[in-house]
Amino acid sequence: MNLNQVTIPSLDLEKATEFYKTLGLQLIVDALPRYVRFECPDGDSTLSIHLVETLPKDNGVSIYFEDDNLDALVTQLKSKGLVFISAPEDKRWLWREAHLLDPDGNTIILYHAGKNRKNPPWRIPK
């Protein structure tokens, strides 16, 4: 089994579309104003966004995108006007992460974990 796509809600699909294009995703389905789908620049995963009247309450959505050159990516995205709520930093779970919010308040975590993404030292043996 492989994760194909994740779909998230948005109150303003046009604004969300521009945000994710700036982030580097490739728009592959444009059914504005109700639905869009993006392809990630690496791998086969896609991200869909659909128009809603209200956003989920409480924790919302967190989306992780991995990049081997995290610090350079963050610098590039800042130069395009994206605002980060945390700069790249090494986490105790052996990932390096930077956080920002999309226009609907969904948390976007850009990170680099390398081998620790699926094989941290505390992984349960098969």
TrEMBL record:
Record-linked Pfam families: Glyoxalase
SUPFAM superfamilies: Glyoxalase/Bleomycin resistance protein/Dihydroxybiphenyl dioxygenase
InterPro entries from the UniProt entry: Glyas_Bleomycin-R_OHBP_Dase (IPR029068), Glyas_Fos-R_dOase_dom (IPR004360), VOC_core (IPR037523)
Domain VOC per the UniProt entry, residue ranges: 2-113
Identification of the protein by name: VOC domain-containing protein
Gene source species: Snuella lapsa
